[in-house]
Specification:
about 160 residues, alpha+beta, Immunoglobulin-like, 3-stranded antiparallel sheet
């Protein structure tokens, strides 16, 4: 399926690079792909979701629950919000930078709003979700419903 290509004057060279011996058709396809990617990235940069960062997190499944561990160092418990809908877990909040003296010469810490979303399988107990924050790691435990727990079935002789 081909889509129309919108070209802006001066955005790309008049003649695509064809030094790889692929010829004009392949170079034109790459030209079109790069243009589409640029438009996509320009649109994403202005979206509100682009302003939020996502913390590093692990999700694991036990026999009784799903456990999500998210790294949120330096973030206070009151600055974190956890919401659970039918199947979606959403962790949001904001890292408040502390006041500093002097001029910051280099900073690699993330700041501002953050958001983590996880879509969990069905048959959960959303009313029994629990969360703890210890040493900068937020642990959210989402119990499974009783019907989804695996059980061992004994085989008897007939």
């Amino acid at each position: 399926m081909t889509l129309p290509v919108r070209r802006r004057p001066g955005s790309l060279p008049e003649r695509p690079f064809s030094g790889f011996g692929w010829g004009e058709p392949v170079a034109a396809e790459f030209d079109e792909l790069f243009e589409r990617m640029n438009r996509l990235l320009e649109g994403a940069a202005t979206a509100p979701a682009a302003l939020a960062w996502s913390p590093a997190a692990d999700m694991r499944e036990t026999d009784n629950a799903y456990v999500i561990e998210a790294e949120l160092p330096g973030i206070k418990r009151d600055d974190i919000d956890i919401e659970m809908s039918e199947r979606e877990l959403r962790i949001t909040g904001e890292y408040q930078e502390r006041a500093r003296e002097g001029t910051v010469r280099r900073s690699t810490r993330r700041g501002g709003r953050f958001e983590y979303r996880a879509l969990l399988p069905a048959d959960l107990s959303p009313d029994e979700v629990s969360a703890t924050l210890h040493d900068g790691v937020l642990t959210v435990t989402v119990p499974k419903a009783q019907a989804t727990k695996p059980r061992h079935i004994e085989i008897t002789e007939s």
